[in-house]
Predict the structure of Bifunctional protein FolD.
Amino acid sequence: MILLNGKETAQGILRELSASVASAGCRPPGLAVILAGEDPASQIYVRAKERACGEVGIVPVSFTLPAATPQSELLALIRDCNTRQDIDGILLQLPLPLGIEPETCLLAIDPGKDVDGFHPENVGRCSLGLPGFMPCTPAGVLELLRRYQLSPSGKKAVVVGRSNIVGKPLASLLYRQGVDATVTICHSKTQGLARECCEADFLFVAMGRPEIITADMVKEGVVVVDIGISRTADGLRGDVDFASVSLKARAITPVPGGAGPMTIAMLMQNTVQAWKKRMNI
């Protein structure tokens, strides 16, 4: 069984990006990091992303706003970041406080600085196979498989979860030309979920339900990517029962240490990509 070590793989990507930035001989990339509210999980994620910036040589320009910040003030900040020459990418940490519409705020971000890949223009480009910023978690999952030489080409891929951030864009990337998987999307209303999962050569799970996928739901030799993560009384748990499923899997990601670090690595990669385009490197 192959343990798909996202933490180790992500570190390799950060080192590659750091070398690229260091050799450029111009101003470093700048990433606006906007955190609204006091959500503890969001604070942890933002600190991890800022640490990654330091490893790559990206300058984080941090904005921390109280939960009571009006939407109009947040939109004004985004518009200012859109025009600043020292900012190449904009990260708006989700979820946002109640009373602020995430769709409105994400739409306000310049697509050329949308390094999360959430703007509808980039979502459309991803769907059509055009150049643009790919959403970080799906892109990270495919990069992890690529670096372990696990190709889903011609294989049946089952995606469990249909969120706009992970499930839908991941399915879109899996069936695009060059990846060439045959894709089935499942969700909480899918009848016969176990049957669908048992047919998967590659199983991607992103529902946020601890250990919903058990050994009787997978076949021998499956490649499993567990994207979900939940905080339980026993600690952090993925959507897959690792102990039992790993006995049947050809390859599997751990939780934590699988998809999460790859997401941050792809955010850094998108930021460097945006910077290079703006600096004509």
